[in-house]
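Below sits my pick:
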Amino acid sequence: AGGHSNGFRSLTLSGDATIGGSGRWDIRPITAGQASLDLAGNTLTKLGFNTIAFVDGNLTNPGTINVEEGLLAFTRSVISGTGNVNVNNGSTLRLENYTSGTITKPIVLTDSTLWNTGANFTLDASVTVEGDSKISVGSGSTLTVPNPITGTGNLEKQETGNLASAGDNSFSGNLVLNGGNTILTGTNSYAGTTTINSGTLQLGTGGTTGSINGNEVVLGSTSAAIRFNRSDDFTFPNVISGSGITGNALNPAAVNKDGANTVTLTGASTYTGTTRLGGGTVAIGSDNSVFGDPTALIDLRTGAIRSSDASPRTIPNPISYSDSTVWGSPGTGNLTLTGDVAYGGGSKTITVNNAITEFSGIINGGGNGTFLTKAGPGTLILSGDNTYTQITAINSGVLQVGNGGTTGTLGSSNVVNNASLVINVSAEIPINNVISGTGTFTHAGPAFTIIGADNTYTGDTIVTDGTISPSLPYFADSSALRLSGDGTVDLFHGQTDVIDKFFIDDVPQAAGLWGRVGSIVDLGADFESALITGDGLLSVSSSGSAYDSWATDAGLTAGNDGPADNPDFDLFDNLGEFGLDGDPLSGATGGKIVVKVASVGGEQVLTLTIPVRTAVGTFNGADAITASGDGVTYTVEGGNGLDSWLLDIDEVTGPDAAAIQAGLPGLTNGDWVYRTFRTPGNVASDPAEFIRARVE
């Protein structure tokens, strides 16, 4: 071999050999070229606690290397050929500054360490772990191991560099992580537990793989984390215990969900660190504490949380609402969140896509001119005594305050309601928020509720239970007041409030002045009701019937809006126009009433098709048939002549009716539907039949 003051350029074995020493020495090029180590099928054993390095060389022939003591380093070299590199008894194999070169020679670690440092490197060799073995990755570098890690031992990851393991690891021991990121993209079946004392275990890199066995995952300190980063939907059944990173300022948190996919959690976890939702969906797949200890924070950065099925789920954890979040999905179970919610500053949206999501903890937060927005078709229940100062905006669905108990408040700012606001509490509470918008206001709980603000909302006010007591006559002139069940209204303000319609138990009431019992005498009311208290009056503009609404929309006025009036002087009075979707101010027929011979059940018969109010049900009768709805009664009858109407009339339905009605003019606002009727005879054998309809 060529000599050098601290090593050799080449070394060739003629038999088994041992190398060692007390200081570092290398096998490496002296000035140029490559180093060479030729095992020639023999075994080379490294003894001594010094460092020996094979640098910028080729080791390609068969043979075995046993590292029994100290440290053996491979640096930018090609290491291949049959036979193993066996690293034993606390010794170390270091992969040093691997900016070039490859290693395919199998590595077996027994109570020893594989250490990568200085550069990112992909280790193509197979790795077997026995006893308590370690893979250490130096700071700033990544070691990629694409092949499965096998063996009967335990594996510990050390230092702050990254270990990326793509194989289906199947060693039979435990996995312990002590620093850096460990990224698993294979289907791992190692038999033991997973303990993360520091650093992050990441499952997946945005693809469809990356999993571990179903055993417990222990977050061994407040520096430990696990991250889910896959694109496909999968279930993580493991129990996660220990502590993990806490708070909502650090990245990562203890448990992290990335990507647009759905991860279903089912384990009865007890960790105390923070869970961060950074994308996609977390589905709750059991009644267990899937988000850890009830005191553990959930940090919402975006994404969705839902039940995995139709089962209701309870989430006891406190919430940090860092960004807009979706709750539930159509058909999944109701959600109840009992922890307090730190809503923070700025505007955020709570979207409810299941039937009901309830926040029973206290929501706090603030920001001038910012919004807490309710979106989605479902019902959001706020049953805590909330202190947030954002404006509450209801864009869709229902926002309900309280759930029948003594607690539940809106924040302290105004409310913009363009959908449905419901109050359902049993204790007397004042509502001093100014409510605007086009949505409805419903009082559904048994409480006596004082409405303290001069509200401007234009939707209907609905009281199904308890009492609302407005301090001012704020009901919109175009709106309706609807009282039902045990619902009442207290007009203690003593003023007259103008509304368009007034309903009691869904029955429209007469237009005029309405007040409490005794108000006809005391206050000059036209009508009185036990459902009204106080000395104020309701001035009801219209009766609230379907006919009255139609007459107003059709442009009729006080001089021509009666059911028997006929302002267009055609054959139909206003009631007939209403019943048959006509225009009361035009004598044109509109083509919506059609008599013709058509095929029904394969026979040619006489038919009549007319518009009928959608509220009308089934037509019944022995000869002539009748049905009623929206204050209108329809009668359809037939006869062999104009002096007798005794034929048996039937309604035509199904494909025959659809064919007859095809091509007819469109009807108005969905309030009418075409219905078709027939006489009993076949026109070929009974050509003198007549059919007509009456609207009364």
